[in-house]
Structures are given as structure tokens and as C-alpha cells.
Write a structure and sequence with these properties.
single chain, 12 helices, globular, six-stranded mixed sheet, alpha+beta, 20% strand, binds alpha-D-galactopyranose, Alpha-Beta Plaits
């Protein structure tokens, strides 16, 4: 029994007065390359972190869903599953509208509640449950704590109710929950990463047809390291900027007469940009998406050729594109990337939704300390909150712990 499994099961017992049927876990992620491409039918390449959200759970026969988190204040959230309704607006209001009463605090509970709602909407025979969560995935750090919460829940329900759904289907249901129940218009990357990543690999995903490939990513074996720099600037996907970028990309696709920006090839980018001469904002969005899909393909080609170091400049170019064309970086992310590269990093970029959160930095093992110190010092000199730096080792996707 792992520590996480034992601790989560014990906490469940303390909250609900009985042992759970099982404990399930799903990881946070970083994205190596392929940012904001997932809602443009494009390519992404995330890897799972060792940080996980664990869910201890038991089924209930009475249609009641009880949710409790070791990391959130506010006690047990109790809902009737047949009263769950998606509604526009913040997660708190969705929960209050769904039953009223106990669930005053903690927008977090909308994510697991949304999973139950999405499964039932899909006609799946899911009933009530008691769930208790413990998580080591930092929240608001762009590391997909919400997808970890969703997928740990989905996997627990999948087993408790014998649904037999494959991991990618759980990811689709989780995206549906987040889009329609929580009200965040995210793509499918984070949920797929949490559900489908495997240890020692980055996951190449074509978000149009959902084909996947596990790409070996053994940095330690090559004397390299992937650092994650959490800027501690809280990002908030629901604040409208993400939705605005998404709407802008859709406007671009319409103006260019394609189903999605994925359909504009790198070779045809100049023509596409000419057609968008009157709309500089959308032009920048289109340029980012088309060049980013191309960068993902280049990264894969270089990894396949065994030339991991050669992906560095592509990561750094990806950051410039997110900063200048997609306009979703911030001073802290730019400082982390610029300082890391100046201190000898092989490549660096922001990762995730943007406007804060984390950067990934590829370094020679021997330079890891030097680069970490340089970034930490630069943050201190700029008067920023000290960043949290750790090493990302590609971990496993969602699994049952016991
Ligand atoms: C967030 C979303 C993802 C994806 C990234 C940007 O993490 O949840 O679907 O769009 O931003 O690549």
C-alpha cells in the first residue's frame, strides 16, 4: 500500500466513518509543446507529473453524492445526483442552484459533480458515491489540478459502477463536464494527459481524431532535466481571456473557410496571413496556431531521431509565439524563460493556459542548479514572489491505487 493510498483511505474513514471500496489517482501535467492547439483540432504533447490527486471512494445506493477534500475548507458537499444541473456562471452558483443547503463553499466540488452529471447525461448507469480527495498537484499553477480531480473521479466511478470505459472516453466525458457543467471552454489535452499518459513518455495527441502515441522521453538517460518553474502567479481560465482566444481562433477559421485552424498547413501560412491583413489580432492567433502545430511535428521528428537537445530552440520559439502572437504570457513567465535561456538552458517556454502559472525549462543536468539560482535571483531582483522550481519526471496516468 502506498502512502497516498493509505493516507487517503484513512482520511476517508475519518470523514465518512467506514473504509472506502478503493482509492484511485490521476496526475497533473506539464505540456512540452503544442499550446492552445487543442481547441483548433491540432497537436499537443503533454507529460504527466508525479504529483497526483487521489480519490478514496465508495458507491451509495441512494442517489446522493458526497464530496470532501483534505485541501479545501468547508466540510462535506452533499448533492442529489438527479438534481445536478449545468448553469452559466461561477461554479459556486452552479452547485447552489443544484440543491441549495450544505454546499456553500468550494467551487472545486463542481468538477467531480460535473463528472457525475456528464456520465448520467451520456446515459451511463452511475449512482451516488462518497468521495474524499487528497492532492499534491499545485492549484492555479497551470499544472491541471482540475483535470486530475476530474479524472480521478471518473476512474473511481468507472470502476465502482462497472462502466468499463476506456481512458480516452473518460477524458472526453471530463471535458464535457468542464465545458458544459463547470463552464470552462477548455480543450481535451489536460483530461487526456491525466487519463492516458504513461511513465517515461510524453504523449503525442492529435486532438482531431484523438489518435495517440507514447513518445519515449528519458531525459535522465541523456543527461538532461526538465525543470518546472511555478511563477506562483495564479492563472484563472474562467476569466474570459481564454474564451476570447478560442473565439478569435474560430473567427480565423471561418474567415479562411476551414473547419479548424489545424487545416491551414505551414506551407500555406503566408497566403492565410495575407487574407487576414485587416484583422491583426486574429492574424497573430492564426500565426501562432499554425507555427505551433509545425513545432510539435518538428519536436517529434527530433525526438524520434534521438536528438533531444535539438528540441530546445523549438521550445523557446514556442514561447516567443505565445508572448508576441497569442499574447498570453506575463512578466513573470517572460523573466523565467529569458533568464533560464541566458543562464544556459537548452530551451524554455511557458506551459498551459497562460497569464501566469508555470514555465518548463530544458537544461543539461549539470546546469540545473545554476539555472535555478539564476531564475530565483532574477525574481528577487524584480521584486516578484519567489518561484517554486522542481524537476518533472514523466509519470504515469490515472490508475487504481488499491
Ligand atoms: C488549458 C486548457 C487546455 C489547453 C491549454 C492550452 O490547460 O485546459 O485544454 O487549451 O490551456 O494549451
Amino acid at each position: 500500500m502506498t502512502m497516498t493510498e493509505a493516507g487517503t483511505a484513512e482520511a476517508f474513514h475519518a470523514v465518512y466513518g467506514a473504509a472506502p471500496t478503493g482509492v484511485w489517482a490521476a496526475p497533473g501535467r506539464v505540456n512540452l509543446i503544442g499550446e492552445h492547439t487543442d481547441y483548433n483540432d491540432g497537436f499537443v504533447m503533454p507529460l504527466a507529473l508525479p504529483h497526483t490527486t487521489a480519490a478514496a471512494a465508495s458507491a451509495r445506493p441512494d442517489g446522493v453524492l458526497r464530496l470532501h477534500s483534505g485541501g479545501a475548507d468547508g466540510g462535506i458537499v452533499e448533492l442529489r445526483i438527479d438534481a445536478l444541473r449545468p448553469a452559466p456562471g461561477p461554479a459556486d452558483r452552479i452547485l447552489e442552484a443544484s440543491r441549495g443547503g450544505a454546499q456553500r463553499s468550494g467551487g472545486w466540488a463542481a468538477y467531480p459533480a460535473g463528472i457525475v452529471w456528464a456520465m448520467r447525461e451520456a446515459g451511463l448507469p452511475v449512482g451516488g458515491a462518497d468521495l474524499h480527495y487528497e492532492s499534491t498537484v499545485p492549484t492555479g499553477a497551470g499544472l491541471s489540478s482540475s483535470a486530475a480531480l476530474e479524472i480521478a473521479t471518473a476512474l473511481a466511478l468507472n470502476d465502482l459502477y462497472g462502466l468499463g470505459l476506456p481512458a480516452q472516453r473518460l477524458a472526453q466525458l471530463a471535458q464535457r463536464a468542464e465545458n458544459a457543467f463547470v463552464g470552462v471552454p477548455c480543450g481535451i489535452m489536460d483530461q487526456t494527459a491525466a487519463a492516458c499518459c504513461t511513465e517515461g513518455h510524453a504523449l503525442f495527441l492529435d486532438t482531431r481524431d484523438l489518435t495517440q502515441r507514447q513518445v519515449p522521453f528519458d531525459l535522465a538517460g541523456e543527461g538532461l532535466r526538465l525543470l518546472v518553474v511555478d511563477t506562483c502567479v495564479k492563472h484563472e481560465l474562467g476569466d474570459g481571456a481564454y474564451a476570447e482566444r478560442r473565439a478569435g481562433c474560430e473567427r480565423g477559421a471561418r474567415a479562411l473557410g476551414v473547419r479548424a485552424l489545424r487545416d491551414i498547413s505551414y506551407a500555406h501560412l503566408p497566403e492565410a496571413l495575407d487574407k487576414l491583413a485587416d484583422d491583426p489580432d486574429v492574424r497573430g492567433l492564426v500565426r501562432h496556431i499554425v507555427t505551433e502545430n509545425h513545432r510539435v511535428e518538428e519536436v517529434i521528428a527530433r525526438l524520434d531521431a534521438g536528438d533531444t537537445r535539438a528540441i530546445g530552440p523549438l521550445l523557446t520559439a514556442g514561447h516567443a509565439s505565445l508572448r508576441d502572437d497569442f499574447k498570453i504570457s506575463c512578466a513573470e513567465l517572460d523573466l523565467a524563460v529569458d533568464t533560464a535561456v541566458a543562464a544556459g538552458a537548452v530551451g524554455a517556454r511557458m506551459t498551459g493556459g497562460g497569464f501566469g502559472g508555470s514555465a518548463v525549462v530544458l537544461v543539461e543536468e549539470t546546469d540545473a542548479e545554476k539555472v535555478t539560482t539564476a531564475v530565483t535571483d532574477a525574481f528577487a531582483a524584480a521584486g516578484f514572489v519567489p518561484p517554486r522550481v522542481f524537476t518533472a519526471v514523466p509519470g504515469a496516468g490515472a490508475r487504481r491505487l488499491g
